[in-house]
Amino acid sequence: MPWWADILDVIGLLAVLALTVFLFLFIRRRVLSRQGGTFECSLRKAHAAPSPTGARGWELGLGRYDGDSLEWFRVFSFSPRPKAVFDRSLEVVSRRKPHGAEAFSLYAGHTVIGVRLSSGASIELAMSDPALTAFLAWTEAAPPGHDRLLS
Predict the structure, then answer these.
(1) Same-domain status, 52 and 106
(2) CB neighbours of 145 closer than 8 A, spacing ≥ 6?
(3) Where are the beta strands (DSSP E) in 16-151?
């Protein structure tokens, strides 16, 4: 068997492996979306970026409502479990459009909101305007005694 046949076998095997990975990611996203309440939502933890408009630290993902919690899944992950779970007792503290390189790091047309969690930690979420409207309605529908603020 010539040496180039072995190379073609390896290339074919790598192509099948890459196709399998992409197919798995597609099926995973469909399964996550099947339950409903799923939307494109990028996440940045406050300590990840030194400037509020820098592109560093953003992770593309999917948000999914599950009762009184928001589950966040990374787009490029094989895990069926959420990477982060946020309860409804969070506070929206700011809202802005992405600037500079940050606009290229996020999905097109998304708005960035600053969120303070019940633990006191701060994160930023980026989502489309319709998803933001649904998110704000979801946070405001919390049980009595949970104040909300949007600056």
Answers:
(1) yes
(2) none
(3) 38-40, 42-45, 61-66, 69-74, 84-87, 91-96, 111-116, 122-127
Distance of CA 146 to the CA centre of its chain: 25
Q: Provide CB contacts within 8 A for 53, sequence distance 6+.
A: 98, 99, 100, 102
Residues 41 and 99 in one domain: yes
27 and 42 both lie in a single domain? no
Rounded to an integer, what distance in angstroms lies between the CA atom of residue 59 and that of residue 48? 10
Same-domain pairing of 111 and 40: yes
Instruction: Place 63 in a pLDDT band, splitting at 50, 70 and 90.
Output: very high
Q: Which residues is 94 bridged to in the sheet?
A: 114
Q: Give CA–CA dist 74/28, Å, rounded.
A: 11
Instruction: Please state the φ and ψ torsions of residue 103, each to the nearest 5 degrees.
Output: -65, -30
DSSP structure class, residue 56? T
Segment 91-100, tens digit of pLDDT:
899 999 998 8
The model's pLDDT over 85-119, given as tens digits with 9 standing for 90+, comes to: 998 888 899 999 998 888 888 988 999 999 999 88
Q: Which positions ≥6 away from 16 have C-beta within 8 Å? A: none
